[in-house]
Every structure is written in C-alpha cells, then in structure tokens.
Amino acid sequence: MAYLEGKVGWSVLLALGLVFPFLAGNDYHLTVMSNAYIFALATVGLNLITGYTGQFNLAHAGFMAVGAYTVGILTVDHQVPFWVAFALSGLFAAVLGFFIGIVSLRLKGHYFSIFTLCVGYIMFLVIEKWESLTHGTVGIIGIPSPEAIGPIGFESPRELYYLVLFFLAVGMWVMHRIVRSLLGATFIAIRNSEELAESLGINLMRNKVLAFMLSVFYAGMAGGLYAGYVRFLGPGMAAVEHTFDMTMFMLIGGIGTLLGPLLGALIMPWVTQYLQFLQEYRFLVFGPILVLLVIFVPNGIVGTYVQWRMRRDARRAPAAAPRPASANPTAQPLQEARGGSHA
Questions:
Q1: What is the pLDDT of residues 236-269, one digit of tens each?
Q2: How much is the pTM?
Q3: From CA 237, how far away is CA 13, in angstroms rounded?
Q4: Domain spans of the chain, in order of start
Q5: What is the C-alpha separation between 38 and 20, in angstroms, rounded?
Q6: Percent of the chain topping pLDDT 70
Q7: 100-125 burial code (b ≥16 CB/10 A, e <16)
C-alpha cells in the first residue's frame, strides 16, 4: 500500500510539472520554476551526502559552479558542442570530488564541514582570479543554448523548462534507486554509526568517497543545466550562500528524505518571490518564519508527515491484531459448558 501511495504521489507531481507551463501566467513564472528545478537537482545531490551519509559538505555550490564553468569554458572558448560539454560537467565535478573527498573525508563532524567550507572558498577565489581560464569577475557571456535533438529545439522558455524538468525527473528516479538499494542502506548505516557500520564490514572510506562523488556529480549536472539555461556565469555562482540556500531547502522539506529536498527547493523560491514587495525587509518576515519552522517542525514537512504516519500505524496495529482465544467472550461459557457435561 505504501508503495502504491508513493507511486501515485510521484505521478501526481510529474503531472503537475507537465501542465505547469499551461497554467503559468507568463515566461517569468517559467523561469522561476526552471531555476527551482535546477537547484532542486543540486539539493537532492547534497541530501545524499548530508541527509543519507551524515557528512555536511559546505563546498556543494563550488562543485555546482565547476559544472557550470565546464560548460561555459568549453562551449564559449573552445566551441565544444553543448551536449558534450554538459556530459563532461558532471563527470569533471565527480573526478574533482574524488580527490577532494579522499582528503576531506578523513575528517569527521564539524571538522569535515569546516574543511569543505575552506575548499568552497578556494573554488570561489580560483574562479574569480584565474582570468585567463574563467574570465574572472567579468564572467562568461554568450553561452549557447542546448542544440536541438532531432525536431526538438530548446530556444523558448517553455522548451527549456521541459528540458530541465526531464533531467530533474531522471535525477529523482536514479536517486530513488540509489537510496532504496543496498548501497543506500550502507550510506544510512554510516550516518547512524560509523563504528557499528565498520564492525559490520563496511569500508567507510570507500563508501563515503562514493557518496561524495555521486553527490557532487548531481551538483555538476545542475551547474551544467544552469549554464545552458541562464547563458551567463559569474564567480558568485560558487558562493557559500548557495550552499546555505540548499541546506535551507533540505531542512524545510525534510533532510534525509527523498521528497523533502525537492519540495523545499520548489516552495522556497516562490515564497521569496511573493515577499519581494518588502524588498530588503522581506528577511525580517522570512527569517522568523524559518526559525519557527526549524524549532517546531525540526524534521521538515516530509519528515513530520512520515513520523505522524508511523505513529498512526502503530496505534492501529494493536486494534487490527487478532485477539487470543482467551479473550474471546464466547470462549469462557463454552469451556464451562464442556466442563459441566463431564461432571
């Protein structure tokens, strides 16, 4: 039953995504939702290493920038076709993640987070200062849009919207397969207790590095999509503020769940859009709301729902269980009648 409910829920979300362009009032709404999809894809990757494996990577936005700049540099400076550069964006981020992971993942807890915070800042400085490669503070302008695939072009906002939605759907499906597999169970075991996981024969370093690489692969792919959609890049792409935004998405939606980061990444951009009339004062409203959510709904929207459902099922279980024969009201008179006949 739970499987069917989950399948129906994902189908409803996909259907809503498909019909959204027909409900949107203008292209600006499509742009907001497309950007939300891109950051949702990156947030799902961050959730793998943070929510499922228990390692808080503060350099995630830097890896997203690596993927974006891979596409920008290859297409603008070297005239590489977009789809080739896009395929390399996730791959290059994962390779870089391997070398950073084998160093940083030797640290635990907040030491790992502080180390990755420094790595993320180094990425930002490299992008800003290495002008011959990244164009420095000027940024990369004129990134080409994705080439057409057969009769399907990607020039209009609606076409780009469906392209981003496609990759988000594929990314969610792949992540679902990962977290529901033995590999996903291994990541969760490491998150719950590294000592216990190691005693069960799990190779901690190998699995943490693998989780890190898969996580930043998602970030690189999201960055590649961002470059093809926005068609302009600047060093601010690697700022740690974007990692904090993705962390907020996870917390609001439900960290360590599959649906939570997606919902958080889709809800929050619209909340900030509708608070724009407050201009810089909108954070006076948004900040306290976020604090209250973290205090009173610490498991996020999805996590709170899952806990409520587990409590409900636990209450229903005793009522649904068959009662023993001694509890049957007709059993005692029947036994007494049989006893009397023998007497």
A1: 999 998 999 899 899 888 898 999 899 999 988 8
A2: 0.86
A3: 28
A4: 29-274
A5: 16
A6: 88
A7: bbeebbeeeeeebbebbbebbbebbe
